[in-house]
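Please, structure for the following, as tokens.
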Amino acid sequence: VLGFLLTSLFSVNSYSQEYEYIPMVKPGLQLWTCDEGYYGHDDEAYRFRRYALTDEDTIIENETYKKLYSFTNSEFDPTTATCIGGMRENAQKQVFYRVGETNKMIYDFSLSIGDTLYDSDYPDLIFQVEDIDTINYNGIQRREFTILTNGLMAAIWIEGIGNYEGLYYPFHTNTAENWGNTRCYIYNGDLLYSNYSHGGNNCIDPLMGVENISEDNSITLYPNPTSKDVNISSENIINSIEVFNS
């Protein structure tokens, strides 16, 4: 009996050590690669975005945030990236972000199954936590929150990583016209999450390349797609080149 009790106690203790809450805002360098877009808006079509959250502090309206950057290069460089705001997390496991005039809570990892929450962008909707699973991502236990509204999927949050739909989309396409996809999450150089379901096969190259030129076979453009340089060559003189969008 004593042996059984000791074995049981060891098993319970070992399991309890497997899961530990992982905050969103934590020491180190976090990188997200996101595919974002809008339905029905020609001027705001598909966008490929990368974000970096650093250890640098910034004070915004008497609150301490970690600096949030936007960048497009394959490697993050704070000297060339654009600081767009910041993120902070309180002791209640609530995550806030500040970008421009927008200041709101985007995650609340203290919630339990059945809890409801509201978003100021969607005042007519009530969101409810439908399920919470503990899932292993690359050897690390994280809780995954499934949130519904009106019986439809509204969001899937992952502790320490964010939303399936993007870094700061609290809720996704069933509640608004915007859509997104978190393609990769890298923490201190390690790829801890990847989702290529929307296309692509890595964390750097944009999903959409330049359309192939079929009108004039004398012009070649390569590589396609590309995240950096584009080579254009022609048998004829090129008088001008116009770029419509990225």
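Residues 2-18 form the longest helix (17 residues). The chain has a mean pLDDT of 81.
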